[in-house]
Amino acid sequence: MKVFIKTTAILFLLIAITGCSRKKNTFLNRNWHAVTAEYNTLYNGNLALELGIEALNDRYLDNYWDILPVERMEIREQVMAPGENINPNFLVAEEKAVKAIQRHSMLIEGSEKNPQIDEAYLLLGKARYYDQRFVPALEAFNYILHKYPLSNTINEARIWREKTNMRLEFDEVAIRNLKKILQAERLDKADRAEASAMLAQAYLNIGAQDSSLAHIKKAAELTEVNNKKGRYWYITGQLYDVLGKPDSASYAFDQVIDLNRKIPRIYLVNAMVRQIEFMDATSDKKAEVLEQLNSLAGDRENRPYLDKIYFQLAEFHYRQDSIRLAVDYYNRSLRTPSNNAYLQSLDYETLGNINFDAANYEVAGAYYDSTLTKLSTNSREYRLIKRKRDNLEDVIYYENMAREADSILYLASLPEEKQLAYFTDYTDKLREKASSEAEKPTQQAAAENFFENKRPAMPGVPNPGSSFYFYNATAVAYGKQEFFRRWGDRELADNWRTRRTAGQGAALDKIGVAEVLDNDPRFDPQTYLTTLPKDKAAIDSLQSDLNFATYQLGLIYREKFGENELAAERLEFLLDNNPEERLLIPAKYNLYKIYDELGMTAKALSLKNDILVRYPESRYAAILENPESFMRDENNPTALYEELYRKYENQEYQAVITESSEMINQFTGDEIVPKLELLKAMAEGRLYGFEKYRESLNYVALNYPQASEGKKAQELLTKALPSLSASEFTADSIVTSFKLVFPFEKAAREDATELKKQISEIITEQGESQEVSVDVYNEDQDFVVVHGFTSAQRAKGFAENLVKNKKQPVTKNYFYISTPNYRIAQIHKNIETYLNSLNTP
C-alpha cells in the first residue's frame, strides 16, 4: 500500500513538472496551462473586475433630468499621477491578466496554443478601460483582433474596442465599426444587444437623437439582463419625450414599470413619476395625479426616493398656483436626506424664484447662493444662476433705497398729529413687548431673545436686542424688584441669606419696570419724530433718491431679468412721481419700448409721439425717428466714451473732466454713466492729486456699488491708495533713476512742445538713449521731462550741455529729480515742497 502511494505521488509530480513547460505543444501542457489560467488567475481577475464595476456603479449618480448614458461610469476630468488608479480592484484584475499571460502563454512558432490567453487580454483591456486608461485598453483589444482572429471572444473584443474609441471621442469611427459588427450574421443575441446599445450612445454623443432611438429600443428588446433592460427602456422613453412623441414615451416607461422588482427601484420610481407627468400634461384629472403622487410618497419602499417624489409634488402644486403647498414640498424635498446635488439645486432655485416674484429679494438671493453651492462651477446652469444672483445685488440695493425713501417721504408728508399717532402706536407696541419680556423668567427671556433679530448697538452702548441678561434694562429692573420683594434690602456681604440686617423688610425703592420703560428713549414717540426731515432740501434729496432708484429698477427688471411687467410698473410709478427731466425722457423712452414689446400698441404710440413732439432735440427722439442711423452715429454713448478715453490717454484731463460731467447729465440712467464717473475720477486724480482722487473714487464706490466700475473704485480705495498715501520725498543718494524737468505755464503749451522737439533732435544727433515727454502736472503747469538718467550728475551734465549747444542752445530753467520723487510729486502735487528742500541749506 505504501509503495502504491509513493508511486502515485511520484507520477503526479512528474506530470506537474512536465506539464509546466510552455515551450512544448503537448496535450498535457496545453490543458495544464489552460485550466490553471481559467480557474485560478483569470477567475480571481474577473472577480476583482466585477467588484470594481460594482463599486463604480454604487458611486455613480444618474441625472434623470437629462438623457441617461447607456453605461453608468463617471469620467474623471483630472489626470491621474503615475501609479494612481480609480479602484484597487481594477489594478488587481490587470495584474491577474498580466500574470496569466506571462505564466501561461504558449506562443510556439508564432501561434498561441493556450485558448485562455485571448480571455486574459480581454480582461486586461476591460481593467484598463474601467481604470480610465483608454489608450492602453485600446492596445489590449487591438491585440486580440490582430493575433486571435478566430477567438470566440472576437465580437466582444470588437465591441469593447468601439466603446474605448467613444471614450476617446472617436464617435464617427465607433459608429462606422459598430454598424459593420451588427451586419455580421454570426453574432449572438447578447453581443447584438450590447453593440446596439453602444451604437445608440455613439449617436447620442454626436447629437443624433432620432438615430439613437432606434438602436437603444432594439437593445432593450434583445437584452436578457433585467438591469440593462430597465435602463434601456427608460432611455427609450426619454428620447421619445425629447422628440415630441409622448404616447411612445409613455409606452416605453410602461415597459420599465412592468419589470417591477426585477430592476433597481430607482428606475421604477422615476418611470412612475414620468408617467404621472404625462398624465398631468395630457388630461384634466388633477385629483388622480395628486392621488398617485401621494401614493408614491406613502409607500415605505420609496423612502430612499422621497426627495424626488416631494419635488414632483411641489412642481404639481406650483403649476396649480398653490404656492404655499409648493413651498412646503420644496422644503420637504430639501429636508429629506439626499446625495442628489442637482435635485437640491432645483429646489433652491425654484424657492429663489418664488421669493423673487414675491419681491423678497434678500431671501431670493440667499436661495440662489445655496443653489450655486450645489452646482459645478463649470456648468452652464452655474453661470446662469451666478449672473442672476449678481444682478439681484442691484435689485436688493435699489429696492431697499426706494423703500426707505418712500417710507420717510410718506411719514414726512403726514400732519404732525398723524405722525405722533403713528409713532405712538409703534412705541406702544414696543413697550408692550418689552414689558412682557421683562416679566418672564430671566432664562426664558434670554433664550427667546437669542433667536430674535438683533439690531447693532451704538458705540459704547449695550445692544438692546442682546440675549445677555444684564444688557436688557427691563429684565434687570424686574430682577431687582423680585429680589427686594423676596429678600428685602440686603447688604452686600458674606452669608447674606442668613445674615439679618437692620434694613431687612424695609420698604423697597420703587425702581420698577414702568420707570425704566419711561426713561428709555426707544419708547418715546418724540425720538422718532425728531428724525423726520423738515427742510425742503432734505425732502427734495429723498425724492431724488426715490426717483433714481425707481428708474434703475425699471431698467434692471427689463434688461437683466426680462420682467417687462415689473419694469413697466416701476417706470409708471416714476412718471407719476414728478421726476426731474434727466430721468423723465429716458423713462418715457424705455416705457415706450416695453409697451411695444408687450403689444400695447396704443400706449407705445402715445409715448413715442410725446417724445417726438415735446423733446425733438433729444437723442431719444433721434433714435425713434431713425434707429438704424443712430446705431451708426458717432454721437452714441459708446462712441463718445471711446473718444473721451482717447483724450484721457492724450493727457487732456481738463477736457475729460468737463465733457464727462456733461455726458453724465445727458445719459443719466444709461449703463455708460458709471464708466464716465470712473474715467472722470481718474482724470481728476491726474490733474488735482491724491486727495481729489480719493474723494472722487469714494463717490463712484458709494453711488455705483453694484456696477463693475463701483467695485473697481472700491478696490482701488482699499488696495491701491494706501500704497500711494506717502508724500515724503526720499534721499536721492540711494536712487539710480533720474529725470530732467523743464516747467512751463499752461498757456505756453506750444513752447513746451517745441522744446520737446528740440531736445529730441539733440538726443538723436548725439546718439543718446534718453526719451522726452510733455507731462501734465496740474491745471496751471506742464513739464517737459527728459527720462533715462542713472544719476543726478548725469542729468545735470546733460542740462549744461543743452545750454552750451551751439546749434540749438536751451536756456530754459530746469531741475532734476529722482524717478520715485517725481512719482510722489505727480501724485500729491507737491513739487514746491521738493524744490524748497533743494534750496534749504
Key structural traits:
841 residues; mainly alpha; four-stranded antiparallel sheet; two-stranded antiparallel sheet
**Ends apart, CA distance between termini:** 127 Å
- Rough shape? extended
Structural class: mainly alpha
Proportion of β residues? under 5%
Taking strands numbered 1, 2, ... along the chain, how are they ordered across the largest sheet? 4-5-3-6
- Into which percent range does the helicity of residues fall? 55-70%
Per DSSP E runs of 2 or more residues, the count of β-strands stands at: 6
Q: Nearest-angstrom radius of gyration? A: 42 Å
Roughly what is the average pLDDT, rounded to an integer? 80
Q: Tell me the major beta sheet.
A: 4 strands, antiparallel
Provide the low-confidence segments as ranges.
Answer: 441-469, 501-511
- DSSP helix count? 38
Q: How would you describe what is shown here?
A:
This protein has 841 residues and is mostly helical. The chain contains 38 helices and 6 strands. The strands form 2 sheets. The chain has a 4-stranded antiparallel sheet. Strands 1-2 form a two-stranded antiparallel ribbon. Strand 1 and strand 2 form a beta hairpin. It starts with a helix and ends with a helix. Mean pLDDT is 80; it is low at 441-469 and 501-511. 68% of the residues lie in helices and 4% in strands.
